[in-house]
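pipeline stage [seq->struct] | target=ATG16 autophagy related 16-like 2 (S. cerevisiae) | organism=Cyclopterus lumpus | residues=314
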Amino acid sequence: WGHSYEKVSGAPRSWRRGRLSFLLSDRNHPSSVCINAVRFSSSSSLLATGGTDRVVMLWEVHAGESTLEGSAEGITCIEFDPAGFRILAASYDKSALLWRLDDSVPKVTLTGHSRKVTAARFSGLHQVVTGSADRSIRLWDLQRAACVKVVEVSSYCSDLVCSENFVISGHFDSKIRSHDSLRTAGCVQQLPVWGRVTSLDISSDRRQLLSCCRDDCLQLFDLRRRSHDRLCFRAEGFKCGSDSTKAVISPDGCFLAAGSANGGVYIWNVTTGNLETRLPGQHSAPISAVSWSLSGEYVVSVDQSRRAVLWSDI
């Protein structure tokens, strides 16, 4: 990575044998920057970070970095395309931007929202879905760089997940809304939760939906059941640090991970419902987001004081 490393031992062998951490230097994200988003590529060899400095940093897990610029304001969300050749980012400047990994200039800029874009996700190779603080969800055709559908919703959209067949959005009115791939004007189903939704994640098999809310609870829904039943995960000391704290499901669906306002990374066991481990000591500021590599080998956490920590077997 070209930065200072610190090895930390003591993680449970059932989950991780060791930990590796690094701090981004001043020549990358500046010291005053809050990192809002982080995401691994499908190959697990790259990760991207984005924050209030309006820059997306690309990192090779073993060495090197590059910079993608073009946003006029801060980055709120990052996603790699399924093929691993492009990267999508949502921005405070009311747009979403698409880059090729071999070009630092945006290939496509999607504009039309009237407030910041909080989420941007690929829906297949040629479509993107965005959610915004302007209480709308938009479907975009990447080949035309055009918005082809607008769905008005009744609350600030904080995050969304999607496939070619559905879109699920989380909102500040303590509701999760399911949409039939935006083909209909309204939502198909509403799920009540117990606080502002800060993030959503979906399992690799598309069967489980994870929400993180401001009531400091992670909730896991089985999408095969049309019910309000859910599993709830809490832990002593765990607290969402912001309205955009992002939690994730592990690639095998067996664990959940989220960062806390106290700087700890919390890992829950889905089967038992219990806290598996807490990874402390590396963050001194609230954690904004975590990402789990598709290989299952790495977890990365980022915080509001520009620190990014890579947790891995060593």
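stage status: PASS
auto-comment: The chain has one domain: 5-312. The CA atoms of residues 287 and 303 lie 4 Å apart.
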